[in-house]
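Thread: "does anyone have the structure for this chain?"

Original post by V.I.:
We have the sequence but no experimental structure in hand. Need at least a predicted one for the grant figures.
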Amino acid sequence: MIKVGIIGAGSFAAQHAQAIASVNGVSIVSASRRNTTALAEFTSRFGGRGYADYQDLLKDNEVDAVVIATPHHTHTSVVEAAARAGKHILLEKPMAPNLAECDRIVQCTKETGVKLMLGHTGHFIPAVQSAKKLLESGEMGEVVYGVATKSKKWMNPDRREWHLDRAYGGGMWMTIGVHALDQLTWLIGAPVEHVSAQMQTRFHNQQADDTGVAFLRYANGATGTAVSIGFQTGVFTFVTELTCTKGMLRIDNSRGAFIGRDEQWQLVPGSTGENWMAAALVNEWQAFVNALEQDTETAVTAEFGRHIMAVAFAAEESSTLRKEVTVNSKRNTFYEQ
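Reply from O.Q.:
Generated one for you, tokens below.
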């Protein structure tokens, strides 16, 4: 039994806790949060010991692994402390607010030998997994172009002050846009080499973007567009569409994956899932548990997560410079067999 401590026992950590309850071989033994009242409510609901200071949780010898769901700008220091304590880590995205800190995370987990998996839930959504299998089978041929749109109401009840300031890793691009980058890159199966992007603040009074659009050039010749919009009013849209040499793939998280050929869309059997987020988190935790039990590489490695962030930061740089930029290529070898 893998025993887990939750660092940052907030609203999304509650979704993690619900997923853990559905996976065999893993259980929650502790949680931490500075708000002791909220912490007590969390442990009362999901079990485990409560720690106001995550450093005390890391001293708990019963904890084998931790999920880190703290504010973006705190990730690096918490990861380094957990790695030194010998705890395996499931780290929520984005990895860190700058590339130097991403490199620190990669280095410290490598030096300590703990396993790190990035919480890129887009890999584990049933519709996305069905599409990935089709691509890997060769049935769709090669990807020529892909577009991923992540568009939603930005100011939801869970929004915190740090979400509204890029200095703390906030903004729509860092919070949601990385999902679009991650999903496209994983499906296309090659690293991004060049980016041209525009980030803006169009809907809200904040020190961070609420819109972002990035044009991506991949090493295998494919191109893509990642769209991240945090509107004031609109319709929630998380859709990815790929144009391939043998047809098209359309991925709607809730409706499923569809193959487009001869002017018709056909649903891929078994790809639907109304509660897709819950299903994705269960699949994510199962993958993490498998990696720990079998001592294998995690499904979303530190190196892959680092590349996604390098692309995200390159997009921000491109927007500032108003020109295409080259992605920092260090450790872009995760696709090599």
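V.I.: this helps a lot. The first strand starts at residue 2 and ends at 7.
O.Q.: and The mean pLDDT is 95.
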